[in-house]
Amino acid sequence: MRKSLTLLIFSLAVLMLWPVSVFAASPQETIQTQVNRALEVLRDPALKGESAKGIREKKIWTIIDGVFDYTELSKRTLAQHWKQFAPDQQEEFTRLFGKLLGGVYIDRIMAYKDEKVLFGKVTNLLDKTAEVQSEIVRSSKSIPIHYRMILGNEEWKVYDVVIEGVSLVQNYRSQFREILTNKAPEDLLRMLRQKTRK
Fold first, then answer.
1. 147 Cα distance to chain centroid
2. What is the 8-class DSSP label of residue 48?
3. pLDDT band at residue 18, thresholds of 50, 70 and 90?
C-alpha cells in the first residue's frame, strides 16, 4: 500500500514538473479544430443566404484571429525590411497585413460548397514549426491547402498558408520587397490602407 502511494505521489510530481507544451494540442489538432469550426458556420442553415453573409464573415474572422499569428506572418513577409519599420509602423503593418491576408483566406473558405476537407500528414520543419497538409476535395479536383504553424506561448498558430503550391508569405514578400526597394515603409503602409479599405 505504502509503495503504491509513493508511486502515485512520484507520478503526480513528475506530471506537475512536465513542460506544459507536452499537453498542448498538436498542430494538426489545432488547425483541424478551427477549420471544422469555420465549416460549421458555413453549413449552418440559419446562416445561409446573402442576408446572413455579414454574420458568417464575422464568425469566421473570429476563428481566423484566434489561430493566425499575424506578427510572425508580418516578420516573415517583410524579412530583412522589418527592421526598417518603426515600432508603431510595425504594429500598423501587422494589423493591415493581417486584415489583407484574412480577407484572402475568407474569400477561399466562403466559396466552400459542402466539399470534403481532408487532413494529411504533418511535417516537422525547424524547431517549433510544422506544416499540416490538407485538401479540399471536389468532384472535379482537389485543392491542397497546407498550413505552416509555429509553437509560441504553448499554442500552435498559423504563420503561412500554402494554397495550391503558392505560399502567401512568399508571394507577398516578393511584392513588398520590390516596393520597398524604391519606396519608404510609409508608402507601403499607405498602399495597404487603401487595399484594406475596399
1. 7
2. -
3. very low
Produce one character per residue of 5-26: b if its CB has 16 or more CB atoms within 10 Å, e if not. eeeeeeeeeeeeeeeeeeeeee
Residue 136 domain-assigned (yes or no):
yes
The Cα 175–Cα 160 span in angstroms is 16
DSSP one-letter string for 57-120: HHHHHHHHHHHB-HHHHHHHHHGGGGGGS-HHHHHHHHHHHHHHHHHHHHHHHHT--S-EEEEE
CB 118 within 8 A of CB 135: yes
Please name the residue that has the C-alpha cell 505552416. Answer: 148
The domain tally of the chain equals: 1
Average pLDDT over the chain, rounded to an integer:
82
Average pLDDT over residues 96-118: 80
**Contact of 182 with 51, CB cutoff 8 Å:** no
191 assigned to some structural domain: yes
Residue 15 lies in a domain: no
Q: pTM here?
A: 0.78
Q: What is the domain-level CATH number for residue 139?
A: 3.10.450.710
**Residue range(s) defining the domain that contains residue 160:** 23-197
Cross-strand pairs, 123: 131
Has residue 165 been placed in a domain?
A: yes
Pick from 104, 134, 114, 105: which is nearest to 39 by CA?
114
Q: How far is CA 161 from CA 1, 3, 9, 63, in A?
A: 54, 52, 45, 15
